[in-house]
Every structure is written in C-alpha cells, then in structure tokens.
Amino acid sequence: MFIHLKNVFYTYNLHMPFQTEALKSINIMIEKGEFIGIIGHTGCGKTTLLQLIDGLLEPTEGQILIDGIDIHKDRNKLKEVRKRIGLAFQYPENQFFEETIYKEIAFGPKNLGISDDKMKDMVKKALAMVGMDYYLYKDRSPFSLSGGEMRRVAIASILAIDPEVIILDEPTASLDAQSRDKLLALIKNLYQRYNRTIILVSHNMEIIAELTRRLIVMENGRILMDDTPRKIFQESIEKLESIGLSLPPVTNLMYKLKKIGKPVNSGILTVEEAKEEILKIVKKK
Amino acid sequence: MKFSRNITIGQYIYQNSLIHKLDPRVKILTTILVIISLFLIKSWFGFSIITLYLFINIFLSKVHPKFVLKGIKPLIIIIIITLIIHFFTTPGEVIYHIWILNITKEGIQRGLFIAVRLFLLIVATSWLTLTTSPIALTDGIERLLSVLKFIKVPAHEIAMMMTIALRFIPTLMEETEKIIKAQMARGADFESGNLIKRIQNFLPIIIPLFINAFHRADELAIAMEARCYRGGEGRTHYRKLMISIADQIFFITTLFVILIAYLVVL
After folding, report:
1. What does DSSP say about strands A35-40 and A214-219: parallel, antiparallel, or unpaired?
2. What CATH number corresponds to the domain at position A220?
3. What are phi and psi of A267, to 5 degrees?
4. Of A147, A171, B23, B53, whose CB is crowded by the most CB atoms within 10 A?
5. What is the 3-state secondary structure (H, E, C) of B76-111?
6. Pick from B128, B118, B111: which is nearest to B54 by CA?
7. Is A177 inside a domain boundary?
8. Cβ contacts (< 8 Å) between B204 and chain A: which residues?
9. Has residue A278 been placed in a domain?
10. A129 with A190: CB under 8 angstroms?
11. Could you say which DSSP state residue A86 is in?
12. Which residue of B has its CA nearest to A17?
C-alpha cells in the first residue's frame, strides 16, 4: 500500500458560522502504478480530496499515510510528500510568473535545492514528457503561448520535480479538441511509458472511460462507488443518473441499443469496442 | 495559510433593525459629525455622552458587540503605542521615574484621553460599516458627493470604483489562497527562510495575482460595455434613497447629543 487515507474528514471554516463539511469519512488505498479517475458533481469535495493527498490541507480528523507514515507528523515530511506527488490544479497556467519557460519549469527543482546542471536536465526531460522541443521553447515567455501549449508547460512544471504520483484536476478544461487530444495522449504516455501513478479528475466521462482503470465516484463529501469504470458504467447506471452524472456517449448508445432489445453488451467504454459489438450483430443478420 | 478569514474590517452584518433601515446618507453624515465632535470635545463628560450614544446605537442595531470589539483588535497596538508616547513625552508633574524617562500626571491624563478618543473613533466607524451594506454605503457616498459636482467631482465614477473594489476583495483573497497552494505544490516554501528569502518567495504569488487581476479587469470592462455602461449620465437607481421621518429624528437627536457633549462642561 502506497497512499492510504484512513477515515479522513475535512471541514472548512471549523468553529465558524460558515462551517461546511467538505469530506466525510473517506477511506482510500492507492497502489503504485494505478490510474484512478475521480468523478462527482461540482462541490462534492473532489478538489479538497486532491489537496489533502498532496498535503496542502490537514485533515480535521483521520490520517493520511504514505508508505505507512503519517504525513502530518512533521513538517519536513510534508515537503518530501510534495516532491513525490505532483498536483496540477485547474487552469494551472494561472500560476505562471517567470519571464521564460525555462525558468518557469525550473521553479520546482529550484525549490528543492537542485544544482544548475541537474536542473537543466530536469527541465529538458519535463518538456520532452509533454512533447515540446527544449531549444525551441526554453527562452520564450510562457505568456506568449497558445492555450494548449500553456497547459502543457504548466504540467511540465509539475513533472519537473519528477513526482511518482501525478494528480490532474480537470486538465482538459476549456481546451479546443486538438489540444485536448494531444494532452490526453500525453497523459496516457505518462502512465504507460513513464509508469507514473495517475489520479485524474474530470467531468468528461469519455475521457474517464477511455483512460482510467479505477473509478471513484463521489457524492456530497463521501465516496459512493470505487470500482473499475467498466463495472460502474455497466451496473450502476441508475445510481449515476440519480446523482446527476451521465454516461460516456458510447456507453450510453450501447445501453440504449440494449434497452430497445438489440443483443449487445452494454459495458462498452470506447468507440473501438462499440464498433466491434455493432459489427457482430450486423454480421449475424 | 488562513489569513483571509481573519479580516473583519468593513464587514457588514445583516440585521432587521431600525438602524439598518436608516438612509445611508444620514448615517454617513452623522458618523462624520461624531468624528468631528470627538476632536472638538475637551471634557470627559463629553466623551461619556458620546460613548453612551454610540452604545445605544449599537444596541438598537442588534449587532452583537463582539463584532465591534473584533474591529478594535488589530488597532490595539496603535492605541497602546500612543498611550505610552503620551505617558513619557508630556511635560508636567513627575510621578514616576525610570532611567532617563519621566512619567507625568498630565501625560497619563492626556494619554488616556487620546486612547479613548481613538477607541471611540473606531467604534463610530465600525458602527457605520457593520450596519450599512457596501452597496448602500457607496450609493450614499455617491449621492453626497454629487453635491460637489459643480467643482467637477466625479461622484458616480468614484462610487463605481469603490463598488468594484469592494466586490473583488473576497475574489482576490480566494485567488491568493489558490495561487499559494499551487506554488506550494511546486515545492515553494513560504513558512521558513530568512527575510530576503521570504520576500523573494512573495514574487511567485504576487505576479500571477496581478496578471489575473488585470485579465479580470479587462473582462469586466468589456462586459460592462457590452451592457451599454457609459458612466453616471442619466443613470437611474433601482432603490431610490428617501429621507424618512425616522431619519430626521435620528439626525436631530444626534445633533442634539453632540451639542450637549460639546457645550456642557461639568
């Protein structure tokens, strides 16, 4: 077991008139090499959960263990946690502040006190991971980039500290289709080629269905379901709909075909799978 | 990083009270009059009358006194410093001697007098902001300033800027917290290091904050223009300010109280 959230509660504005319980009795175990998706309605506590995992918030109750050690035991431990876990917030390009992309990406390694030579390698590697050419981009201003490029540089600035776990909060929000596909390919690559553990929050069910291997559904500060996406999208359709979440479009199509009596499998997650299922019944005729 | 939750200056507490219903212009004017009177009054009797008047006002507004005291908290150090300076610097009858410093009887009297004056100033102004919503307050200021239009005071523009500034305080606070967290996620450490390092650490917060604020200002300007905003010319108000009988009674009572406090010397 790698990351373990043990009966975690989090309350905002504790002991104040505006006190709100954001998370209630959360128990999650995350192993190395997992690809986890988190879905849930706006305000269900997803972002709070991510911040807790990265040690940015301290749980009101309960413990967060990494490799079996409570991360809030001492402050030096927290810094190490943030080195091992990289968190990219929503619209991460809003935190840019340097004049060049090189300096922007080097911010993380610099904070960790890494030497200049090694820093250069790390920046190079981080840019390569997001598919950008080091020499072409290093001296440009991060503010001169397009939306999709900005997002990738922002993610590179997280990757620069070489985290084992990468947490992405709505990485594709307000990107055009092309940049979105590029970014998704990149995330897939991080998982498959670089063997990183990935936690992905998204409202886009298509992305979740296609990429993740494990899906956590949250509702009102609690974990409602924690299973494989295939199982959830096949067996808990009513439950998902009752909390206002939709199915991925392909899954929905197959589900409706099944409903009108076509002999198809409804636990379909990708267009490719759907194609094969439909061809099967067409050929039968 | 929870500093944003501790700021209460200018906080408005809604209550359904007589005071809350008063016209903001009347409240602003009476507050100004009270402030002026605090500088004119020379007697302890005068101060006690004003104190009584302010506490009755707070009682009538149904706002819990603890909110008023909360507003004083950040200024307590300033009050104490003025108190100490007066203790030691006023010439007169020496009653205590430390090293080269003398505490005088006159010093203690004057120091306490000034401290009470500062205290009452804060109470008077927090009474105003606690019982008047920011919108009513800027509305009142706009109407009061428009009297000065003939000397080209841009009353509407000033009021609009105040409204926008007030509106964006919580947004900027939230954003600051978000940026701090985002930079901490990139390994930034805001809690340790020496002074120079701490100031350097400030840049990764302040620059994104400014950039985002400029973006937001641009967007707001475009949104306002898209809705045909063109300044105060010919602009009407949804809620017309009206001076009621209650306003008149309140204003006259205040004038009366201030005159007694100023003129009667016991």
Report:
1. parallel
2. 3.40.50.300
3. -80, 60
4. A171
5. HHHHHHHHHHHHHHCCCCEEEEECCEEEEHHHHHHH
6. B128
7. yes
8. 95, 97, 107
9. no
10. yes
11. E
12. B5
Tell me whether B66 touches chain A (CB under 8 Å): no
- Decide if pLDDT at B158 tops 80: yes
Residue A225, pLDDT > 50, answer yes
Question: Which chain B residue lies closest to A98 (C-alpha atoms)?
Answer: B204
Mutate to test the interface with A, among B11, B12, B186, B192 (most CBs of A within 10 A): B186
Nearest to B181 among A13, A51, A108 (CB): A51
B69 touches chain A (CB under 8 A): no
How many C-beta neighbours within 10 Å does residue A189 have? 14
Q: Do A99 and A55 have their domain in common?
A: no
Whether the predicted model's global pTM rises above the 0.90 cut? no
- Residue A145 in any domain: the answer is yes
Chain A residues with CB under 8 Å of B182 CB are 89, 92, 94-95
Q: Which residues of B touch A54 (CB under 8 A)?
A: 185
Kindly list the residues from chain B whose CB atom is less than 8 angstroms away from the CB atom of residue A92.
182
Same domain as A57, residue A44: yes
Task: Give the best residue of A51, A97, A105, A161 to mutate against chain B (max B CB count within 10 A).
Answer: A97
Question: Which structural domain, as residue segments, surrounds residue A122?
Answer: 95-162
When divided into structural domains, chain A yields a total of 2
Among candidate residues A199, A228, A257, the one where a domain is terminated: A228
Domain boundary, last residue among A228, A252, A268: A228
Q: Enumerate helices (H) and strands (E) in chain B, giving the number of each.
A: 10, 2
Give pLDDT tens digits for A152-211: 999 999 999 999 999 999 999 889 999 999 999 999 999 999 899 999 999 999 999 989
Tokens 């990139």 sit at which residue? B186
A174 in B contact zone (CB under 8 Å):
no
Q: What value of ipTM does the predicted structure carry? A: 0.87
Q: Are residues A152 and A16 in the same domain?
A: no
Chain segment A239-270, per-residue pLDDT in tens: 898 988 988 998 989 888 888 888 888 778 88
Interatomic CA distance for residues A162 and B9, integer angstroms: 43
Q: Which residue of B has its CA nearest to A80?
A: B187
Q: Is residue A250 part of a domain?
A: no
Chain B closest-CA separation from residue A49 CA (Å): 14
